[in-house]
User: What shape does this take?
Amino acid sequence: MKLAILADIHGNLEALEAVLIAASEAGVSRIVSLGDVVGYGADPLGCIYRLQEAGAVSVLGNHDQAVLEPRQIHCFSYPARDSLLQTCEVLTPEAAAYLRSAAYRRIEYGGTMVHAHPCRPEEWEPLFTYRSVLEAAAEMEWDLVFFGHTHRPVIYCYAQERVQRLTSSIVAVGPHRYLVNPGSVGQPRDGDWRAAYALWDVERQVIELKRVEYPVARTLEKMAAAGRADSLMWRLRCGD
Assistant: This one.
């Protein structure tokens, strides 16, 4: 069985469609979203509906929680606040129910899925620095964790009380602990504008980080029409 692990879709329907097509061609039988389906992009409802159609399960992201609990929106940056407020205006009861059904943490086939810190997912602590990853790896009770939130694809291996960032985009899971960030579908921040996701072959225990092109110009046109901030569109162009 193969799983497609998606994170940080952020209302980018063109990127999501490209990933779903690539996942289908790869023989994926299950889709898992690591949260932040909404925010930033112009198609929050479209992304929710497509995940529902694909039978995808999801964990909760901080942007998802914000549209369910709008009092939290003031904690976000101005460009994010604006997109979240617009999402609140169009969110249907069915779409809200899908987001509300997401837990902070899921376990699928022995892999633990979270949006941010695996041990404290409700605090939205990013695993970005070496120290934060090392402390999380030492603290967690699971051998394989998939996380998002930072928008940067990476595979970490924890062994002998040290963390190594692997340079390969593919790994055969061994007798250590692994933390895998598939990167962002809808707003990458690693210098590569292409949509990012991960393929997990459960039987072979092989994980591969993948990239796929999508019609980003169309996404930018829709964001401009929706009045999204120039900074959000610049990041999408550059993948930064």
